[in-house]
Amino acid sequence: FLDTCTRAGVTRLSVGLQSMDDRLLAGLGRPGTAADNLRALGLIAEHWHGETSLDFIAGIPGQAREGIVADVATAARTGCGHASLYSLTVEPGTPLASLVESGSVALNPRDRDDELWLEGRAALADAGLCQYEVSSFARPGKECRHNLRYWHLEPYLGIGPGAVSTLPPGLAAALTGG
After folding, report:
1. pLDDT beyond 90 at 68
2. What does the alpha-carbon distance between residue 119 and residue 100 come to, in Å, rounded to a whole number?
3. What does the mean pLDDT of the chain come to?
4. Hey, which residues does 82 pair with through a beta bridge?
5. Is 168 helix (H, G, I), strand (E, B) or coil?
6. Which of 46, 59, 164, 70 is nearest to 126 (CA)?
7. Taking the CA atoms of the chain, what radius of gyration do you get in angstroms?
């Protein structure tokens, strides 16, 4: 699959690790484990020749400062050029939303979530990944072009389920027949 992506012109993989802590992954309702994440990172290292971005979440119920710092250290060890650090949001209809609604999981106080995010940001900076937008961090020259186009209000094309695009009016009309 990774070789096919390379041949098709894909230049960056974004891997949603969220955490490297099995307990936290289970609390999010994620079917994967830290071992699965490590296996995926190994396959990427062996077979992928493009850029890699790793995604993490700060503010997972039960997450500790040491945990977010350890997660970010994973990104540093892989040598990836890009990482995203998102604040947890509970989306309706997700397993986590059900657990919160039932009282099985209590969300952290907002200031605790903020502290965890700031710890993650500091750890990313220490690992050489500089913040260049709200949730995105990169080594110099490894910024995501899509993100930069988005923030500079330049057109971009998204492909796939749920993808979003912003295209110049003439091109948008040509593509939609309008």
Report:
1. yes
2. 25
3. 87
4. 53, 138
5. coil
6. 70
7. 18
Asked if residue 169 has pLDDT above 70, the reply is no
Contact call for residues 41 and 81 (beta carbons, < 8 A)? no
The answer to whether 121 and 85 have CB atoms below 8 angstroms apart is yes
Whether 139 has a pLDDT exceeding 90, the answer reads yes
Report the alpha-carbon distance of residue 121 to residue 115 in Å, rounded.
10
Name 150's Cβ contacts closer than 8 Å, sequence gap at least 6: 156, 166
For the chain, first and last CA: distance in Å?
36
Q: Tell me if 64 sits within 8 A of 21, measured CB to CB.
A: no
Half-sphere exposure of 93 (CA within 13 A, CB side): 0
Pair of tokens at residue 130: 């500089």
- The rounded distance, in Å, linking the Cα atoms of 164 and 173 is 16
| In the block, residue with structure tokens 């209809």 | 93
Neighbours of 126 (CB within 10 A): 12
**Is the pLDDT at 140 greater than 90, yes or no?**
yes
* Dist CA 169 CA 120 (whole Å): 39
The closest of 121, 60, 128, 58 to 87, measured between CA atoms, is 58
Could you tell me which of 54, 70, 69, 73 has the C-alpha nearest to residue 116? 69
